[in-house]
Write a structure and sequence with these properties.
By secondary structure, this protein is of the alpha/beta class. It has helices at 29-44, 66-69, 74-80, 84-87, 89-92, 108-115, 142-161, 167-173, 185-197, 201-213, 219-233, 237-247, and strands at 5-10, 13-18, 50-54, 59-61, 97-101, 104-106, 118-122, 126-128, 165-166, 178-180. The N and C termini lie far apart (43 Å). The structure holds acetoacetyl-coenzyme A (CAA).
Length: 257
């Protein structure tokens, strides 16, 4: 059986590819365990600064695997902590994770993309939360992250009607950071990831943590959190190097210290 999750390293970028093309990358336990393992590995690797999660041209992921979960029971879901156990690894990653989305990102696929820090989409991408058609609701954060990304009006429309949103609409709505022609998506995503990877890794991680704090706190708490981090970065050699390099009109050489 082929590996359902593949990993590659591109410079300082860890690339994670979901590889179940025959099922439009439907997310079963093997896939989610594979993603969790890949993320844990790249998180622990000092040579990696950020990660890219992708699928194939036809599907990023068409959702949780329906055939796999159709006979699950309430007690089984509760006891095994279905969704929570392995899906949350993306959310707990401290290094940035970029979703590179082509084709379908539906249900759990859309939710996994939204767990990432940035979504870059190809012009073929289609996003949606069609769970209602199956007699269920989104279960991996769709009803929470989608309204935060696109607002109540569109989130309700998508979740209640099950319609799909194309890449252009998703970009206009604020779900997607940038849209690229399909054949350029991976090159452009790796280029953006490589740009991030050149910065100071602890600062990159702090920026991610601070932006995420804005979703978890009031404005004054969030600004205070940011201010504490801002004060603290002056203890880093990389801050001294970054500012010295600017003044001396040269490229900084960050040491992640
Ligand atoms: N789970 C399991 N298998 C899936 C799947 C899914 N989510 N999505 C697609 N597949 C399988 C199909 O069963 C089919 O397999 P076979 O060839 O063995 O029949 C194969 O992938 C290709 O799919 P289609 O023939 O359906 O392809 P299409 O191009 O005609 O349609 C589609 C594409 C509109 C995406 C359609 O496949 C579809 O509607 N998929 C389901 C989307 C969905 O409902 N996602 C939500 C899942 S529930 C969830 O995610 C819960 C949660 O919040 C965590």
């Amino acid at each position: 059986m082929a590996d359902v999750v593949l990993t590659e390293v591109h410079g300082k970028v860890g690339l994670i590819t979901i590889n179940r093309p025959e099922a439009l990358n439907a997310l079963n336990n093997d896939v989610m365990d594979g993603i969790a393992k890949a993320i844990e590995g790249f998180e622990a690797d000092d040579a990696i600064a950020c990660m890219v999660l992708t699928g194939n041209e036809k599907a990023f992921a068409a959702g949780a695997d329906i055939a796999y979960m159709k006979d699950f029971s309430y007690v089984q879901n509760y006891k095994s902590n279905f969704i929570t156990r392995n899906w949350e690894s993306i959310r707990s990653a401290r290094k940035p994770v970029i979703a590179a989305v082509s084709g379908f990102a539906l249900g759990g696929g859309c939710e996994v993309a939204m767990m990432c820090d940035i979504i870059y989409a190809s012009d073929t991408a289609k996003f949606g939360q069609p769970e209602i058609k199956l007699g269920i609701l989104p279960g991996a954060g769709g009803t929470q992250r989608l309204p935060r990304a696109v607002g109540k009006a569109k989130a309700m429309d998508l979740c209640l009607t099950a319609r799909m949103m194309d890449a252009q609409e998703a970009e206009r709505a604020g779900l997607v950071s940038r849209v690229f022609p399909a054949d350029q998506l991976m090159a452009e995503t790796l280029k953006a990831a490589a740009t991030m990877a050149e910065f100071s890794l602890p600062v990159l991680m702090m920026v991610k943590e601070s932006v995420n704090q804005s979703f978890e706190s009031s404005l004054s708490q969030g600004v205070n959190f940011e201010r504490r981090l801002f004060h603290s970065v002056f203890a880093l050699e990389d801050q001294k190097e970054g500012m010295a390099a600017f003044v001396e009109k040269r490229k900084p050489a960050f040491k992640n210290q």
